[in-house]
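Troubleshooting: if your tokenizer reports a length mismatch, compare your output against this known-good record of 117 residues.
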Amino acid sequence: MSISRKDFLKKVGLLSVAGVGTAALAACGGGGSEKPAEPKKMAADPCKDTSGVPAAELQKRTTFKYVDASADPAKHCSGCALYKAPADGGCGGCTLFAGPVTQNGYCTAWAAKPEMG
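Known-good structure output:
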């Protein structure tokens, strides 16, 4: 099936108008008497701040029972094969989920880094 240029431009124009209309409706928020949302407070330690992490990624952290401080001194994130060391000296990361990870953290997927030799 081929579509003429004229028909294509009409459809693109309609989709653009629909998108702008939807965005405008979402922006006005219904105009009710609801209180404005409270701004999220950042954690004092940026390596523990998950305010910008999507809910699905937060769920992964929960699934793997991630904690900021390991109860086992022999098992901590910086000694894990899945740990992504920070390039700038800031917070680390993990290959399993998004968001900051403390080097002293732990989760149930912990796996010792292979010995280099």
